[in-house]
Amino acid sequence: MPETTAEETARAIAAERGNRPDELLEILHDVQSALGYVPEAVVPALAQALNLSRAEVHGVVTFYHDFRAKPAGRHVLKLCRAEACQSMGCETLVERAESRLGIACGETSADGRVTLEPIYCLGLCATAPSAMMDGRIVGRLTPERLDALLKEAGA
Amino acid sequence: MTSIRFFIPRDAAAIAVGADGVAAALAKAAQAAGRNIEIVRTGSRGMMWLEPLLEVESHGVRHGFGPLEPDDIPGLVAAGLLDGHSIGLATHRKSVGPVEQISFFARQTRLTFTRCGVIDPLSLDDYRAHGGYVGLEQALALGGAGIVDVVAKSGLRGRGGAGFPTGIKWKTVHETTADQKYIVCNADEGDSATFADRMIMEGDPFLLIEGMTIAGIAVGATKGYIYVRSEYPHAIATLKEAIQLARKAGLLGANVAASKQAFDLEVRTGAGAYVCGEETALLDSLEGKRGIVRAKPPLPAHKGLFGRPTVINNVLSLAAVPFILSEGAKVYADLGMGRSRGTMPIQLAGNIKHGGLFETAFGMTLGELVDDVGGGTFSGRPVKAVQVGGPLGAYFPRALFDTPFDYEAFTAKGGLVGHGGITVFDDTADMAKQARFAFEFCAIESCGKCTPCRIGSTRGVETIDKIMAGDGAEDHLALVTDLCNTMKFGSLCALGGFTPYPVMSALTHFPDDFRRAKRLPQAAE
Ligand SMILES: Cc1cc2nc3c(=O)[nH]c(=O)nc-3n(C[C@H](O)[C@H](O)[C@H](O)COP(=O)(O)O)c2cc1C
Ligand code: SF4
Ligand code: FES
Ligand code: FES
To answer: CA A2, CA A35: separation in Å to the nearest integer?
Structure first.
């Protein structure tokens, strides 16, 4: 039963952090790295463990852009769309990725291989445009380098 | 024979353009040649157009090669790289000469960044050998009130954006009595074009730790938190390691540097919300809640983290403090102009030839920074506009390039210094699109508390879409101006309140971009 597993995982993670409510963000990061997303099912479990209301936990999960409600594709490609990257043509790269994958930014390809997401600044603004694939950072992105990343992701 | 020392950054920007591959190629070449070399992974010097930059030490001088690719290593080795510096190497096409003589570097006044790119960021010995922990020693001798006095006299103002005098903030917390006080470091660094906080955390983390420890002693706080955005995994890892090392060395813990002062630190990770850089939203986020902006008063200095008196400062504000303590307030205050004292780590970004970190005393003009230091655009086309101070900062046209880098001078021109980021755009930029993005970003990141910010920003996007589609520009432009006024005066924090800066500056300085004929759908996005 996957739901039970998710809840158990979440409880164990919370316990590891002393069930401290101020560590909720860290706990959610850990849950997401263990499960790939933050399933709705963990909300009541975390609320109980941290002595918070469900609404409070749900509010936190939905407020922050980092936490996903659904599993992502096998690879996550984040393209920076903030100003410094705009000045170096990131929007053309976003369009290119969208058309290669046949999806809009924010979506997952039909075969489940790649999720394409926007990100607003990686602090690599003097070597723009920038990207992050599965946690790996890439600077001076070009159409060729983007294609190589997409190929690596199997798209 | 002692082994030759090589230096390659472990800074995220260098890694993002291949520094790890260059380091691996060098190690492999040395092994193949049976040579024993030392590769030190440093922070970045901040000359980002040269990254990955490899340095080799010869007679105490560091010679640079960059920007390198792993494939450059065999050629450099053939030219004698593993034998130390030589004429053959100096004429290599990737040679940039003695790194500290490069004009971009030589013309800086590096006080905060003096060690960044020079030392091994996780070596306490290196840190001490380059002046580290002298400030803390002074601080321990001075005591709380004495430290606050020195910081006040230095004229240091908050580098996070608002420019509030750091000494006054510390004095308030120092004078407030409580069972527990906190030091919080704002390392959310969400502004596009800024990366100075990241460079310090990755390239000289003990500097931030020392600055926070001094702040703790100054106000009587025993616990500190560093709130780092999740987009900075390298910085987070380096900080955590540095904190462990400082603890082991007795520089954090129950008796800081064998004194009676206790101070310890924890790193916390953000979760992708720009508004959490706002200090009260950040405090809520640190408590594990949604990052909603709180009304002030009460000030964080009175009721901050967990309701206790809290100093919250930007990374660069805290990182400026060890120098001020070790060299004295006057040395710092003697630099700068007007009420902007000391140095500012300026970040040159976007479409720029020589992008990177440039620390200098306040007072250099925007034109000097963009044209002389930065070398103009990367594309080689004319500069059209520069945005100063991140997504809430104004767009400046060339006509305002005589504005000196100074808090008051920028305010007088309808802009802001902010966290010191400058994004350069060439003449292909469409300022209507940039204005649209400013509204869009505000809509995406609004914490939702104020209607003008939450709703106004979305109306702004729609209205600019109509302008870009070429219908009824004049009426819609009047509506944009109205919206901006409502947001400016009806928003609790600077997200809603300052979004009008980029919008109105684009409108004022580049009116033609808003009055074009009907555009093709693609051009309007
Ligand atoms: C929307 C918004 C985002 C902000 N982001 C940051 C940030 O990322 N880093 C920062 O130091 N200050 C940021 N600030 C400013 C902080 O509210 C606060 O002024 C600062 O942390 C105080 O430290 P300082 O006095 O050392 O600058 C932001 C403010 C607003 C309104
Ligand atoms: S201006 Fe926007 S971000 Fe700031 S408090 Fe109001 S709604 Fe929140
Ligand atoms: S704006 Fe893209 S990395 Fe900073
Ligand atoms: S982070 Fe504020 S609404 Fe998304």
So the answer is: 11
